[in-house]
Structure formats: C-alpha cells, structure tokens
C-alpha cells in the first residue's frame, strides 16, 4: 500500500540538508550508545534510587505527550500501540493508559508478551480501562489514525525474529502515520535502517528518543522529540549529555537533526 501526494512527502520528507525546523529547538545534543544507555539506566536505579516502574512510567508519559503534540484527539482518536516483549513494549503499555485518560481510543497489539510481572500489571491497568488487546493486526492497522511503534528500543541488536519481520513489513507498508519509541523498530542502534528486508524503507513520521538520542538518529528524517525530564546533574556530566530545557510542565521537547546527525 502506497500513499501519494502530500502523504508520501510526509512519510519520506526532504533530505535533512534542506529541512526546516521552525518549531524545534536549535541546539547540539550528544547521542548515547546502547551500552551507555543501559549503563545510565543501571546508574539511575542503583545510585539514583529510581525503580524500573518509575522510569517506565515517565517514558510512557513522554510518549503519550508526543502523541498528543503531533496528533491531538481532534485529528482522530484511534491509536494503535504495537508493543514488543521488553521495556520498550512496557513504555508502550504505559503510553496507551495515558492516551485512554486523555480521551483517545487506544488499542494494543502485543504479539509476544513480556514475562516480567511488571508487564502483567500494566496489562491489568489497561483491562480496567477497557483498552482492547487486538489479535488481527492487518485489520486494526486499517482503522488506526496513528500507530505507536513500541516494539524495540536501544537494546535491539537484530536480526528480527518471528513474528516481527512480518509486523515491521506491515507497518512499513501501511498508510497510517507512525511514531516510533526510542528508535524505529528494525533499525540498528548505531547503523540505522537495515540494508534490505523488513525495515529497510521504514521512516516513521515521528520519533521520540528517551533520556538521550541514540546514534541511529543521524539517519532519521522526520519530527524528532526528546523525553526524559528526570536526569540529575551528576548523571548528565558522567555521560557527557547536554540536555535541553523542557518548556513549562512538558515532559518532551522537539529538536531537529542536521545532515551530520548532530541534534
């Protein structure tokens, strides 16, 4: 399925060198490797006193705010959240809960559920809000107004394993706009989109990086947000991060990406 006209331009925008980011903050932010991202999370929990629940809650809240920013309820309330089996999928479950509270009509596709007890509690929370877990993905994707790709995040090392090659191909070919969480699923965190196969032409309209951008963002051509308004000065200094100022009470800030991948 292919879109034409403005819809195609939206999905495959102009090259970074000629894009304009009139709505974004202009600044230079450092990308963080998957190894450092994992180390940073460990420091937050072991030194900073954060729990996994808290970090996932703030990540999911950031995702939900990004959805609201780019696609308010007036633009269509049917949000399809596709969740993977790990923490990225957990972020998606949290986001779906917040979206339901905002007045959207989210549904969740969770083809390979995470085994952590935390994920089961997040599912229960969604059940209590009557958020449906769908099984027929091809049908659901046709009626969605926006899709949240929360399948794989910074820990993805490839290759895609069943059932995800088919799922990524279906998302890639769909006409629905996509917001990816932390990285477009199927992309190598360092090297960007795969050279061939599922995901090789996957360019979501929107991307929200969590805590800090990942190196693959230099290959990204769309609207880019940062979420993670909880880092301390000691953590940002340890990892050499130069984070932006978040406006007001927002959990997200929009930033641009230039042709060299600098934010």
UniProtKB/TrEMBL annotation:
Its main location: cytoplasm. (6S)-NADPHX binds at residues 87-91, 153-159, 182. Pfam families: YjeF_N (PF03853). Gene3D superfamilies: YjeF N-terminal domain (3.40.50.10260). Its EC number is 5.1.99.6. Transmembrane segments: none annotated. Residues 37-243 form the YjeF N-terminal domain. It catalyses: (6R)-NADHX = (6S)-NADHX; (6R)-NADPHX = (6S)-NADPHX. This is NAD(P)H-hydrate epimerase. It comes from Aspergillus caelatus. The lineage of its organism: Eukaryota, Fungi, Dikarya, Ascomycota, Pezizomycotina.
């Amino acid at each position: 399925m292919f879109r034409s006209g403005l819809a195609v331009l939206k999905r495959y925008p102009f090259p970074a060198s000629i894009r304009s980011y009139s709505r974004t903050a202009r600044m230079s932010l450092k990308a963080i490797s998957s190894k450092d991202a994992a180390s940073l999370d460990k420091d937050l929990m072991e030194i900073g006193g954060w729990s996994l629940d808290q970090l996932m809650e703030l990540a999911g809240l950031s995702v939900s705010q990004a959805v609201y920013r780019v696609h308010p309820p007036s633009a269509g309330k049917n949000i399809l959240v596709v969740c993977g089996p790990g923490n990225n999928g957990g972020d998606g479950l949290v986001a779906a809960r917040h979206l339901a509270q905002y007045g959207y009509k989210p549904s969740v596709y969770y083809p390979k559920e995470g085994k952590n007890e935390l994920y089961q509690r997040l599912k229960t929370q969604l059940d209590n809000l009557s958020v449906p877990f769908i099984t027929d993905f091809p049908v659901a994707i046709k009626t969605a107004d926006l899709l949240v790709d929360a399948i794989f995040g910074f820990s993805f090392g490839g290759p895609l394993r069943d059932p995800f090659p088919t799922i990524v191909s279906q998302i890639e070919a769909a006409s629905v706009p996509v917001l990816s969480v932390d990285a477009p699923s199927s992309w190598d965190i360092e090297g960007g989109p795969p050279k061939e196969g599922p995901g090789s032409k996957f360019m979501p309209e929107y991307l929200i990086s969590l805590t800090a951008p990942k190196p693959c963002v230099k290959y990204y051509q769309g609207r880019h947000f940062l979420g993670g308004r909880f880092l301390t000065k000691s953590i940002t200094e340890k990892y050499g991060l130069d984070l932006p100022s978040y406006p007001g009470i927002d959990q997200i800030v929009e930033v641009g990406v230039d042709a060299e991948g600098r934010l």
